[in-house]
Amino acid sequence: MCFFLYWLGINYRQVFEQLMSRMLGISRAWPQGWTVKREYYHLDLCVTYSKDTGKTHKGCPVVRECAFLIVENKLKSLPNILQLKRYEQVFLKSNIGCSYSVLTLVKEFPDRKNIVENTRWQVHHYDELALLLEECSKNGVIRKEHQFYISDYCR
To answer: From CA 116, how far away is CA 108, in angstroms rounded?
Structure first.
């Protein structure tokens, strides 16, 4: 699934922004020049951007890579609070305001309440993603052959 979200973020940025904003409840503006990455520092999917630190080095501005959102994909295992807490540390100094989502096939699992109450992660089921994707992809931006695949996935 993260490969599909990556593909969507590369090819249909506006749809990707709308989908992820709706799913994660993001109301703030997306950063200029954001980039979507897969398997970056072992993170299944993340959106990063560069932020000027206000410092210079040899006359050039020093920028820092920041995380805007991080998605962990759980298809063959259950979300694990220790793993998710470790992933929160990846952009520790530059993840202020970062949104975190774990996508899972299982709606209820033993550690769900603990994850929701004691981490930064939101838990989302693939059904939710499919419903939002179907809505967000109907704006006429997506090419016809791609719309067919998206519609098929959403069923």
So the answer is: 12
- What type of residue is 119? T
pLDDT in tens, 41-65: 889 999 999 887 778 888 887 777 8
Q: CA 117, 78, 126, 35 torsion: positive or negative? A: positive
CA distance 148 to 116: 35
Give dist(CA 1, CA 32) in Å, integer. Answer: 25
Task: Tell me how far apart the alpha carbons of residues 143 and 8 are, in angstroms, rounded to a whole number.
Answer: 12
Tokens of residue 150, six digits: 């998206």
What does the pLDDT average to over 141-150?
Answer: 79
Phi-psi region of 20 (alpha: psi -120 to 50; beta: other; left: phi over 0): alpha
